[in-house]
UniProtKB/TrEMBL annotation:
GO terms for cellular component: cytosol. Keywords: Oxidoreductase. SUPFAM superfamilies: Formate/glycerate dehydrogenase catalytic domain-like, NAD(P)-binding Rossmann-fold domains. It comes from the Eukaryota. The keyword Oxidoreductase applies. Belongs to the D-isomer specific 2-hydroxyacid dehydrogenase family. One of its GO terms (molecular function) is hydroxypyruvate reductase [NAD(P)H] activity. CDD domains: GDH. Residues 8-340 form the D-isomer specific 2-hydroxyacid dehydrogenase catalytic domain. Residues 116-309 form the D-isomer specific 2-hydroxyacid dehydrogenase NAD-binding domain. It holds the Pfam family 2-Hacid_dh. This is Glyoxylate reductase. The keyword ATP-binding does not apply. It comes from Laetiporus sulphureus 93-53.
Amino acid sequence: MTTPTVKIVVSRNLGPEVMPLLDRPDFEVISCPSQTEACSRKWLSENVVGAVGLIVVLTDKVDAELIETAGPSLRVVSTMSVGYEHIDVQQLSQRGIKLGYTPDILTEAVADLSIMLALMAGRNARQTATIWPQYAWSPFLFCGPQLSANWVYPTRTAGFLGFGRIAQATLARLIPFGFTHCLYSGNPTSPPDPARDATVAAKYGLQSVRRVAGLDELARESDVVFVLAPGDPSLYHVVDEAFLKQMKRTAVLVNTSRGTLVDSDALAKALREGWIWGAGIDVVEGEPNVTADHPLVKEPRCAIVPHIGSATTETRLGMATMAVNNLIAGLLGGEMPAQVKM
Ligand code: DGY
């Protein structure tokens, strides 16, 4: 007697360590062959028909049309990402389809990159890494603002747009740099929580941790601003000309969350006109269609990398494994390691 199988579609080959987890007699797995190239929309639409489980990455759009194309068999969608802006959650919820995602596992990798970009932005990495050894050492050549506390600035303030897990892991990394204060913007629907702030301050030995009443204060007071909020439409271009104009001229802006939160043209202008010192950018609105003539790519004070926040071998393996485990648990009726609450 043959075991009945259910169709599982995987939009990217997840590699030799992870794909075997899907080798089960009750699964018929259809995977896009490439590990590196995105599967086309055409491939996904053709193959998703009749799927019961679907594993995607953040460049695959799981919209009403794709969900409709899959048909009534679809029970679980699992994304190998912490963000799920590419998925029509409302449609899934209406149809009783579960959604898995991969939080926590990438927190440390993204926090690492946030610090790297803060350093790169302040220390002119974009210019200096490419011209060596044409310039001789000179007392004030290529000087930029120092991230760590120093004899001129013995106190340092970190500002966070969004204060979730990654922001707090980034804050933890700033303590050995002598940071003394932390300001953050919180979800306006939840009340400020001074007791929690005091606990975070005590945990890290900071002089203060405070949720700001308005973004003006965050912009004005911070030596480095980390954009680490989700890509919610309500936060579209939260970093705009008005915000950037209020920042310190020696400050740097780091975005390792979603490109839509920062107005790229305003940021390029801020760098060009010296409103702020530099920027460290992992994500850009409109990615991956970012070409050499993009205003931020052209800005020498902008250290820019192509959405590599979670790109460590360990983290990506963990994310892929979690995406598969979410799918399997969701289909077998068990508790997913991480399920989006709808
Ligand atoms: C995510 O998982 O949402 C990240 O942006 C990927 O690095």
